Amino acid sequence: MERSQKEEETKGPTGDSELEDLDEDEDGDVWIFGYGSLIFRPMPFPWLERCWARLPGYIRRFWQGSTDHRGTPENPGRVVTLLTLEEYAAARDRFVATLCDDDDEAKHHIADSTTTFGVAYRVGAAHRKELFAYLDHREKGGYVREVATAYVVDGAPLDESRSIRCVVYRATPINAQWLGPSTYADMAAQIARSHGPSGPNPEYLFGLQRALVEAQLDDPHVSRLVSLLPVVDDDE
């Protein structure tokens, strides 16, 4: 989900046709919804607004592989993607069926919410072209552009103020770097040992968790991975 310092030039995410339906405001500004590294490592562009927002109908999961940012092709890391409720249920049910009646593990794969909180950025029209060039490259590892409706939240307890049409980059289960669910212990162990051009995989997990906690938001999926993250000896 991040731009590394050593990236090969490659074709970025698809989805240009989706942008044709994007509702721009009268100045031609565009909204970007970030739910992973964009929360704690913002884009290098000036933005007109930055605010917390919720995206209903999507679930955040560490089910996407990362071979260019938080891992390598030989040892992929795990980063977040957004799944529709249907995509999530299908992947979860297939995995839970392999657990051999491990009810304790299975219960942790039941989503506590059908909405995802993230950060929305409003970027001015003058930066629109370079913004998408940058994000397409940053998100080239299996992510596509889509347009969705999010709801800006403000104050306590996060009262909704308005709806916005925004661009979302997400990796669907059919992309080549998709990892899908595993046990939480196995996912945490994979994150703990993974490292890529953008840095250690645990740094990504901790950065996301820290930002959510500071905003007084709880994502049980993220919190459980943090709680199970083992300590890895770099000398091993």
Fill in the keyword field for this structure:
236 residues; alpha+beta; 5-stranded mixed beta barrel; two-stranded antiparallel ribbon; 8 helices; 9 strands; 29% helix; disordered N terminus
Structure description:
It is a single chain. By secondary structure, the protein is α+β, with helices and mostly antiparallel strands. Helix content is 29%, strand content 28%. It contains eight helices and nine strands. It has a five-stranded mixed β-barrel. α6 packs across α8 (220-228) and α7 crosses α8 (220-228).
Question: Secondary-structure map with pairings?
Answer:
Elements: H1 16-19, E1 30-34, H2 37-40, E2 49-56, E3 58-66, E4 77-84, H3 85-96, H4 103-107, E5 115-123, H5 128-138, E6 144-154, E7 159-170, H6 184-193, E8 195-196, E9 199-200, H7 201-214, H8 220-228
Parallel strand pairs: 1-7
Antiparallel strand pairs: 1-5, 2-5, 2-6, 3-4, 6-7, 8-9
Helix pairs in contact: 6-8, 7-8
Overall shape: it is globular
What is the share of helical residues? Answer: 25-40%
Strand count, sense and barrel status of the largest sheet are:
5 strands, mixed, barrel
**Physical arrangement of strands within the biggest beta sheet:** 1-5-2-6-7
Topology pattern, helix = H, strand = E: HEHEEEHHEHEEHEEHH
How far the N terminus sits from the C terminus, by CA atoms, comes to 27 Å
